[in-house]
UniProtKB/TrEMBL annotation:
Protein name: Radical SAM domain protein
Lineage of the species this protein comes from: Archaea, Thermoproteota, Thermoprotei, Desulfurococcales, Desulfurococcaceae
Record-annotated Radical SAM core domain positions: 25-189
Organism: Staphylothermus marinus (strain ATCC 43588 / DSM 3639 / JCM 9404 / F1)
Keywords in alphabetical order: Iron, Iron-sulfur, Metal-binding
GO MF annotation list: catalytic activity; iron-sulfur cluster binding; metal ion binding
Length: 274
């Protein structure tokens, strides 16, 4: 892995994601190197984009810029790690995520963290102290460590993510699971869905579901997802989401689909019935 250092003009950006006011990404590039990762498309440094997972840019003046910004910005919800993972391994050295969230929490912001790395447990003291202003989501695409290694080669194994989720939830922190992307043949099977729903029930987490989005770079014949493109495009997504939400209801777990165009713009189970 190669580390480079950059200066930024802004620390917080306006978020286009629902429920978030701002986005904060301390690092550009992501060592986890998930094969389906779309984040490269939002990365303006060509070298990082073309060597995804190998080069990480550390925003070295981030904390100084953030200190200035929070003096005049309206308080709100900050999504931490909306593009790249805020707890990827470089965070163990540079601690930009920890310093940023300390600053934000002490100035009245709410933070919403999304990660695939158990390094977050290093900050459990801080997160617990401010638990009413924090929520944490783990991306869990499968609970099979062996399969996950192919799709998310350098993220924490999902069994460890599940452990971390339980730890955070046991401290009273609001937790959620991002079950996405759903990839046909990898994690759309019943067993995977039941295991994820059971974990959500155990930890009192809600589940956000998202399917694979086909991107141009996947059309490259050498890309590992190239072979599933046709299947993904013709997959019965509406049926999938209907059945998954039915399961969620059975387990009394709150599930929110991020796709599948339900009728009447609703995300209730009934809206997915043809
Ligand atoms: S953890 Fe997230 S940002 Fe990092 S490579 Fe995987 S999908 Fe991309």
């Amino acid at each position: 892995m190669k580390i480079i250092f950059i200066n930024v003009k802004k620390a917080l950006s306006r978020s286009g994601l629902p429920d978030l006011d701002y986005a904060l990404n301390p690092y550009m590039g992501c060592y986890h190197g998930c094969i389906y990762c779309y984040a490269r498309l939002y990365t303006w440094i060509k070298e990082i984009r073309e060597n995804w997972g190998e080069i990480i840019a550390v925003k070295k003046n981030l904390i100084n810029v953030l200190e200035k910004e929070i003096k005049y910005l309206r308080r709100g919800i900050v999504g931490v790690g909306t593009i790249t993972d805020p707890y990827q391994p470089v965070e163990a050295i540079y601690r930009l995520t920890r310093k940023s969230i300390e600053l934000l929490l002490s100035h009245g912001f709410h933070i919403s963290i999304q990660t695939k790395n158990t390094l977050i447990l290093r900050d459990i003291d801080l997160l617990t102290k401010h638990k009413h202003s924090v929520d944490v989501g783990f991306t869990i695409t499968s609970l099979n460590d062996k399969k996950s290694r192919i799709y998310e080669p350098k993220a924490s194994p999902p069994s460890m993510r599940a452990y971390a989720l339980k730890q955070l939830s046991s401290k009273g922190i609001d937790t959620w699971i991002f079950y996405g992307p759903v990839i046909p043949g990898y994690n759309d099977d019943l067993d995977t869905r039941i295991k994820i729903i059971e974990l959500a029930r155990e930890t009192g987490s809600k589940i956000l579901i998202d399917r694979i989005h086909i991107k141009k770079f996947m059309y490259n014949r050498s890309h590992p997802l190239h072979k599933i493109l046709f299947i993904a495009r013709n997959y019965p997504w509406k049926r999938f989401i209907y059945e998954t939400m039915k399961l969620c209801r059975k387990y009394n777990v709150d599930c929110i689909p991020g796709f599948a165009e339900p009728s009447k713009n609703k995300t209730t189970l009934d809206s997915f019935i043809q």
